[in-house]
Design a protein that fits this description.
Rossmann fold; OB fold (Dihydrolipoamide Acetyltransferase, E2P); 6-stranded parallel beta sheet; 5-stranded mixed barrel; 13 helices
Length: about 475
Amino acid sequence: MNDLKLKENDLKKQQEWTSLLQDILYLRAGNKQPKAYVRTYGCQQNVADSEMLKGMLIEMGCALTDDNNDADIIIFNTCAVREHAEDRVFGNVGALKALKKKKPSLFIALCGCMMEQEHIADKIYKSFPYVSLVFGTHMLHRFPEMVFQAVTTGKRVVERGLDEGKIYEGIPQHRDGSFKGWLSIMYGCDNFCTYCIVPHVRGRERSRHSSTVLAEANEMVKSGFKDITLLGQNVNSYGKWLDEKTDFPDLLRSVAEIDGDFWVRFMTSHPKDASKKLIDVMAENPKICNHLHLPFQCGSNEILSRMNRRYTREKYLDIVEYAKNKIPDLSITSDVIVGFPGETYEDFKQTLSLIREVGFTSLFTFIYSPRVGTPAASFDDPVSHEEKAEWMSELLKVQEEIAAKRCAGMVGKEYRVLVEEQAREGILNARTQNNIVVELHGSADLIGTFQNAAITEARNWILRGKIV
């Protein structure tokens, strides 16, 4: 209870900073409404965090813009999971130098997972002096205070460090979509896979109270959301340390029981915690999408052990088999790391055989990228990047064949789809419950609606159809 009061007091202080910033930012923008540009890198959790940043910016009096050349405030919300994502951030921050020179009042801030790494924050501070604010994932709720400090003192602000065990409710939020939305149910990760930086930058697991999650889900449904994704680094760990006996399958069932016509998805599930109870709940409720994202990373037990994944190939296939029997039209997607330190071609062949055995709808594939601060970064890694790239090409060819076969098997069938966007004039992109894109002829006024689609043609990764 005391902790809850502390959180409420902290948020009240932020609201005071927000009110003060309305006039300050207006003056900085030349006596006009300031415009804010937020660019998000990385995962869906970062997208959800950026929606809170946008909510706070709007309360500061800002208008949002998609053009950084037109902005008075630029924020990059960064990702630390892959080296490529970090390189893109450095390149794009470097490109802001010319903008800052042209508009000296431009306020530039960097936040997110990259900024929780000391060596990255130091590099930003030394190499990009025109960045006024750097803050980590645990400082999100203090955003108004930090902006106020930076703009009123003229000094650069760097705030990072773990704020363990706390969840700050009540932060303003501006959702990017009107019918598809993200709903965070927990933060952090306790798994400490040897290749993964996430627990080091997002902290230990902490869950939102189920009543808070359900209240937000209810509000989203009332606001017209048709596709709601429950988010967590490992949703199957939901409920640990809460003062209530609610696990993730219980929460999922409760969300799906909300009145309304909508779908609910979730990600990500860790195979070591994926339970048969979860599969049963998915099977019993038609609002829960028949799509399971279940990252297996590697098909070799030896490599899985080196990754500290804490499940075996056999356990993974066991839960997959149970899920397929319970949900016949289940779509399974996954993440795969190719070329983990110590992985041999024989290990890699076990990954290929698992891919063939499961028959994934699609895969997110990555060549191993060492992360400073993780155990795997110090492992011996004798296989060259060129050889790993050849393995990756082989994997992609196998998966392409599987996906083409699966899509071909959907031709002639009808599916309920959610129309998501206009791909080009007269062509819409829709999505099935099992997360496959369908191209349809139709007008833009169908976006955000459910339709029945007859599948007429299959391509490798997407389908074509017509509205029935």
